[in-house]
Write a structure and sequence with these properties.
single chain, about 230 residues, alpha+beta, Pseudouridine synthase, 11-stranded mixed sheet, 4 helices, globular
């Protein structure tokens, strides 16, 4: 239920801890979208007649989990969209990878180009037409018997950026078959989680920060124990 995964809610903004199975925007599956779920929740909670507004501010890939912001008013949507577009937010992700990076922390800079037909991005030479610079920083937080936990801070927001850049240095995200994982996860997820998000409230101008609990499966719980 949406109500059990709310990280922040007020008259203008609602932040949800997205599950890996949920979609932000409609696709060919025809599955219910998160805005539809949120509208139903708000309509029932506040006994709202007529249409309920829920604007998409940013997105997470369907197999990814974690903190996701939605706007409850058109004014909030416009202002939040500008914040995310202008990189005035702070986003931190956690990823469980199959192989540890050579260095425990580092900064990755690539140029990526999206292949629309494959819905996949590739590292390319900077001179390639249509390529975009992608930058992230990472650090290793923990290691288990077979997997390793990385914390990633984004400097840019490109299509599948974390998935592509980690894969390019041999740190493939568990379950991410599209970018080289040995096998998929049983639930179709990949082990990438939007852990922390900070933004400026669109009307009060106060800082809002949220931490999204990791998925409840055994691997996530074990590798993050004590963090």
């Amino acid at each position: 239920m949406i109500s059990e995964r709310i990280l922040h809610e007020d008259n203008h903004v609602i932040v949800i801890n997205k599950m890996a199975s949920e979609i932000v925007q409609g696709d060919k599956t025809g599955d219910q979208t998160m805005p539809d779920e949120i509208k139903a929740y708000l309509k029932e909670k506040y006994q709202k007649p007529g249409n309920v507004f829920c604007g998409v501010v940013h997105r997470l890939d369907r197999p990814t989990s974690g903190a996701l912001v939605f706007a409850r008013t058109s004014k909030a949507l416009e202002r939040l969209n500008a914040q995310f577009r202008d990189k005035e937010t702070n986003k931190i992700y956690w990823a469980i990878v199959e192989t540890a990076p050579e260095k425990p922390n580092g900064r990755l800079v690539h140029h990526l180009k999206k292949n629309e037909a494959q819905n996949k991005s590739y590292p390319v030479n900077a001179s390639v037409s249509g390529s975009k610079e992608a930058i992230l920083s990472y650090r290793k937080l923990a290691s288990g018997d077979r997997y390793h936990l990385l914390e990633i801070t984004l400097e840019t927001g490109r299509h599948h950026q974390i998935r592509v850049q980690l894969s390019s240095i041999g740190c493939i995200i568990k379950g991410d078959v599209k970018y080289g994982a040995k096998r998929s996860n049983p639930d179709g997820s990949i082990c990438l989680h939007a852990r922390y998000l900070k933004f400026t409230h669109p009307t009060s101008k106060e800082e809002v920060s949220v931490v999204a609990p990791v998925p409840s499966d055994r691997l996530w719980q074990e590798i993050t124990k004590g963090l």
